[in-house]
Design a protein that fits this description.
The complex is a heterodimer of chains A (about 110) and B (about 110). With about 110 residues, chain A is mainly β. In chain A, about 0% of the residues lie in helices and about 55% in strands. In chain A, strands 2, 4, 5, 9, 10 and 11 form a six-stranded mixed sheet that branches. A five-stranded antiparallel sheet of chain A has the order 1-3-8-7-6, with no helix packed on it. Chain B is about 0% helix and about 55% strand. Chain B is built from no helices and eleven strands. In chain B, strands 2, 4, 5, 6, 9, 10 and 11 form a seven-stranded mixed sheet that branches. In chain B, strands 1-3-8-7 form a four-stranded antiparallel sheet, with no helix packed on it. In chain B, a hairpin with a 3-residue loop joins strand 4 and strand 5. The chains are: A mainly beta (about 110), B mainly beta (about 110).
Chain lengths: ~110, ~110
């Protein structure tokens, strides 16, 4: 079974704090990495699609980096807001086929 | 507006019943996926399909089968439901390659 790991499992921060979490994945056979946000009672929605080593992507206060050689990606949230509370998932897509495997997610709670 | 639709939001079935979970997408996507989500375990891949009539086992295929007779529809079949298949089931679809996936709303299945 392909191992995609996320840490920490959960995180509680105060409004205004900046935070980051990690996704680690196999460095061989890499094709793409996705980040998704999953809010309660909704479906997961894509934040970023990352393909190149050294990629940095940004959407508002959220950004992500990618290191395919060592097999990790970081997601950063600057100045967390209560509406950022969600589970953040990363998904690894391997080169040989089209399967998409997820980590267990990081559950973020932002307290006002 | 892109759409992935799962046939039921909530389902209660008896042990031993044959259960069909249906997923339809309207985006002409090649790839379709079935996941189950359990607390602390994230999204685990059951089966995926990269084309009509094509299917590949994911990490936890035991007790499940799938059918993809048309491009837009991907069915998950529980041949003989058991209580350990009580879970949230999520369907997703994506274009072939690195593209982001789009998810259905989920089916919460309870097997009694």
């Amino acid at each position: 079974i392909l191992n995609v790991e996320q840490s920490p499992q959960s995180l509680h921060v105060q409004e205004g704090d900046s935070t980051n979490f990690t996704c680690s994945f196999p460095s061989s056979n890499f094709y793409a990495l996705h980040w998704y946000r999953w809010e309660t009672a909704k479906s997961p929605e894509a934040l970023f699609v990352m393909t190149l080593n050294g990629d940095e992507k940004k959407k508002g206060r959220i950004s992500a980096t990618l290191n395919t050689k060592e097999g990790y990606s970081y997601l950063y949230i600057k100045g967390s807001q209560p509406e950022d509370s969600a589970t953040y998932l990363c998904a690894f897509i391997g080169y040989n086929n089209n399967d998409m495997r997820f980590g267990a997610g990081t559950r973020l709670t932002v307290k006002p | 507006d892109v759409k992935v639709t799962q046939s039921s939001r909530y389902l209660v079935k008896r042990t031993g019943e044959k259960v069909f979970l249906e997923c339809v997408q309207d985006m002409d996507h090649e790839n379709m996926f079935w996941y189950r989500q359990d607390p602390g375990l994230g999204l685990r891949l059951i089966y995926f399909s990269y084309d009509v009539k094509m299917k590949e086992k994911g990490d936890i295929p035991e007790g499940y089968s799938v059918s993809r007779e048309k491009k837009e529809r991907f069915s998950l079949i529980l041949e003989s439901a058991s209580t350990n298949q009580t879970s949230m089931y999520l369907c997703a679809s994506s274009r072939r390659g690195v593209s982001e996936a789009f998810f259905g709303q989920g089916t919460r299945l309870t097997v009694v």
